[in-house]
Amino acid sequence: MRQINGETLLKGLVDRWRNHKKIVISETRFFFYLDRYYILRKSLVPLEQLNLCSFRDQVYSELKDKITRTVVDMINDERDGKVIDRDLLKDVLDVYVQIGLGMECYEVDFENAFRESTRNYYSNKAQTSILECNGADSPEYMLKAVECLQAELERVSHYLHSSTEPKLMQDLQSELMITPVETHTEEAD
C-alpha cells in the first residue's frame, strides 16, 4: 500500500480495515473463553483491543500522513466543484475514529490538518471574493460567505464527524467574516 496513492489508497485502507474487523470478530468468538477468564484474571489487554492496536501500529501509522493529505485534497477538490466519492471519505474518516479507541486519531491525525487546510482555502477565497464583490461588507460578499458556510455544514452532515462542526464554523466565521471585515475597515480608515 505504500506505493498506492489517491482514491486507490483510501479504498485499500477501507478494504483492509473491513477485513481486519471481520478477523477480529472471528478471533474474539474463537477465543471467547480465554479472553473472558484468563486475560481478565491476569489483567492483560483484551484481544479485541490488542487487535485494534496492532492494525493501528502496523498499517495505519505508516500511512496516516499520506491518507490525511489525500482526504484533505479530495475535500478541496469538492470545494472547487469536482464530484468526489463521499461514501469513501465517510468510511475513511470512520477508520480514524474507530482505530483510535476514542477521538484522538481523528482529532490529531486528521482534524488539525483539515482545519488548517480549511483556513487557508477560505482565506484565499475571501480575498478573491472581496475583490469581485467590491468589499467585505457588500451584500454579494455576505451571500457568498453564507453559501460557503452552508456547503461546509453539508460536508459535516455527509462525511465529517459531528464534533468537527463547531470548530469548523468558528474557523469559517473567522476567515470569511471577521478577518475580511476587519481588514476592509482598516483599509477604509
Automatic annotation (TrEMBL):
Pfam families in alphabetical order: Cullin (PF00888)
Residue intervals of the Cullin N-terminal domain: 6-186
Gene3D superfamilies cross-referenced by the UniProt entry: Cullin Repeats
Lineage top rank: taxon: Eukaryota
Gene Ontology BP, a term: ubiquitin-dependent protein catabolic process
SUPFAM superfamilies hit by this protein: Cullin repeat-like
Gene Ontology molecular function, alphabetical: ubiquitin protein ligase binding
Family: Belongs to the cullin family.
Protein name: Os12g0236250 protein
Organism: Oryza sativa subsp. japonica
